[in-house]
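Backbone geometry tokens:
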Amino acid sequence: MVIHLGGEASAAHFFLSGLRDVNRQKDKLRFRLNLERLGEIMAYELSKKLAYEKISVRTPLGFSQQYALPQPPVLLAILRAALPFLNGFQRIFEESETGFIGAYRKELGESGGTIAVQTDYVATPNLDGKDIILIDPMLATGTSVCDNILMIKKRFKPKSIHLACVLATPEGIQKVENTLGVQQMIWTFQVDEKLNQQAYIVPGLGDAGDLAFGEKL
């Protein structure tokens, strides 16, 4: 299931435009801030799909019935581009445990058309029986997401898995559905046109990690 949050006009489009605009991208602080704001918006919308229980809260004048999360979701961020996006999720799910996965793409061949994903670092809490939000701003080929979810399912038995991304491609969504089935919910603000021969999203926004933190060697 794909949940497309950019299907109607909202403030999210202003932040998303800031991420895409080549002139506004030059401000790294603003780029990270826009990712954080989109993280907050997506986290709020995603929170509506979780299981709640009613609690009684004492006020100065009585008691009020409210909803509470008995078990906050676990946030898993794929380094490094996900860090600002993660910050937005942490503001909404302030009691959530957080894990980190160090994964990066390796281009095979001179053309760069074949992509492999190298995972060098994994640090997560116990994920058994918990709702998982896997945070990665760009769902491009879908290889990284699929590899990491398969790894999670091999080690744990999570209750549910939500994929949180700013942009997605039809190819990435199809890869997830073909590899993992339809058990995962994919959250995105926009589904872009395609991948190019170098497996970058078109029109996309460029390399989110480089734009947020500077170019890597």
